[in-house]
DNA sequence: TGCCAGGCCCTCTTTAGGGCCTT
């Protein structure tokens, strides 16, 4: 439940996060094995967090190959409870962004529920926003969008901090495009949530209304 | 018993089906 706020949250001050996991569904017993995140404050990345975590069982070969995270690497990592308690402190009460946020939100909720911890920020999905802003992109996978926007990256994919940094750069690029192409300077986080979940048909009217209202 | 993700969007839809995206 959102608490009353005196003014809308900024869209350039939030935490961008990414989980690597043992599979696709915490409801099927999957667990987080790595969390990576960056804090963006007023459009600048000011802090980062990355930690492997031991899920308590061996991960499958597919995940080892997919992420480059091995069972050997996880054997000496702290357990999920230790890491997620620390990470809950990192995110604080910031709003949150992730690429395909419904996935990361499920794992964040599941891991924090085990600790009886909670968080007050709201999620916005960079993938849904990119679908609205860049319908001409070949697809809306994170790596494809990074290439589509010509964003700098270090060639590492499917590791939590690397993906969180790329998502953050994509998010900042979308903020720039909203200002340059649509006249939306310093949009609120709530407006970006609204844009990301609007229908394709409703988007032009929404953007016009925001531009006119300024 | 048999199956096994789930949320979101799009479309010749809406009493539905299929594709995308995340690991």
From TrEMBL:
Record-listed E.C. numbers: 2.7.7.7
Residues annotated as domain Exonuclease: 13-180
Record's keyword annotation contains Hydrolase: yes
GO MF term list: 3'-5' exonuclease activity; DNA binding; DNA-directed DNA polymerase activity
InterPro entries named in the record: DnaQ (IPR006054), Ribonucl_H (IPR013520), RNaseH-like_sf (IPR012337), RNaseH_sf (IPR036397)
Keywords: Exonuclease, Hydrolase, Nuclease
Subunit (UniProt): DNA polymerase III contains a core (composed of alpha, epsilon and theta chains) that associates with a tau subunit. This core dimerizes to form the POLIII' complex. PolIII' associates with the gamma complex (composed of gamma, delta, delta', psi and chi chains) and with the beta chain to form the complete DNA polymerase III complex.
Name the record gives this protein: DNA-directed DNA polymerase
């Amino acid at each position: 439940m959102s608490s009353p706020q005196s003014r809308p949250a900024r869209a350039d001050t939030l935490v961008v996060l990414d989980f690597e996991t043992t599979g696709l569904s915490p409801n099927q017993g999957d667990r987080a094995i790595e969390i990576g995140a960056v804090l963006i404050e007023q459009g600048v990345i000011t802090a980062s967090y990355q930690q492997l975590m031991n899920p308590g069982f061996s991960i499958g070969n597919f995940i080892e190959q997919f992420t480059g995270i091995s069972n050997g690497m996880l054997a000496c990592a702290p357990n999920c409870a230790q890491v997620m308690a620390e990470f809950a402190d990192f995110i604080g009460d910031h709003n949150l962004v992730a690429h395909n946020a419904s996935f990361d939100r499920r794992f964040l909720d599941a891991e924090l529920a085990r600790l009886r911890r909670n968080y007050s920020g709201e999620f916005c999905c960079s993938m849904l926003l990119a679908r609205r802003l860049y319908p001409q992109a070949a697809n809306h996978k994170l790596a494809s969008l990074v290439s589509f926007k010509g964003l700098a990256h270090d060639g590492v994919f499917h590791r939590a901090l690397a993906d969180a940094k790329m998502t953050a750069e994509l998010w900042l690029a979308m903020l720039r495009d909203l200002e340059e192409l649509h006249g939306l300077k310093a949009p609120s986080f709530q407006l970006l949530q609204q844009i990301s979940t609007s229908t394709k048909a409703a988007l032009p009217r929404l953007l016009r209304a925001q531009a006119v209202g300024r």
